[in-house]
């Protein structure tokens, strides 16, 4: 897939070649402002690509840089919006140590982040896109989230934007795409 993107006269990406294969894990790596998030948004079809593009990734789920939660809902209600199985939802919340019936607006930043990640993981998908997903997580929580992703996402395509060096090793990345 070739990506080109301009915003007005500013060129963010020019003929960036990204070869995404089904079932592989990719880390988009590079300095801030170089186009990693834009590339991810183009892959998610949230922004247009100026190049002809015929990438097929199936059903996509995404963790955005912002949590984008339903603040007046409980964590459980946020997850039930994408997954009907209450047992799976409750088990996931328990694994991430998130109160089931507390309103999300009362959560800390790290707790909101965990709910946002869980929501993306519990949505039925073929491809998982994650944009700086581990911001605000302490080391212990980071490790449990990584373990959950590695176990749950076997065989699925993952594309992650992160500035954290440990993500490459911890998420078993197949290819680092430098920007």
From TrEMBL:
<feature type="domain" description="ABC transporter">
    <location>
        <begin position="2"/>
        <end position="179"/>
    </location>
</feature>
<dbReference type="GO" id="GO:0005524">
    <property type="term" value="F:ATP binding"/>
</dbReference>
<dbReference type="GO" id="GO:0016887">
    <property type="term" value="F:ATP hydrolysis activity"/>
</dbReference>
<dbReference type="Pfam" id="PF00005">
    <property type="entry name" value="ABC_tran"/>
</dbReference>
<dbReference type="InterPro" id="IPR015854">
    <property type="entry name" value="ABC_transpr_LolD-like"/>
</dbReference>
<protein>
    <submittedName>
        <fullName>ATP-binding cassette domain-containing protein</fullName>
    </submittedName>
</protein>
<keyword id="KW-0547">Nucleotide-binding</keyword>
<dbReference type="GO" id="GO:0005886">
    <property type="term" value="C:plasma membrane"/>
</dbReference>
<dbReference type="InterPro" id="IPR003593">
    <property type="entry name" value="AAA+_ATPase"/>
</dbReference>
<dbReference type="InterPro" id="IPR017871">
    <property type="entry name" value="ABC_transporter-like_CS"/>
</dbReference>
<dbReference type="InterPro" id="IPR003439">
    <property type="entry name" value="ABC_transporter-like_ATP-bd"/>
</dbReference>
<dbReference type="InterPro" id="IPR027417">
    <property type="entry name" value="P-loop_NTPase"/>
</dbReference>
<dbReference type="GO" id="GO:0022857">
    <property type="term" value="F:transmembrane transporter activity"/>
</dbReference>
<keyword id="KW-0067">ATP-binding</keyword>
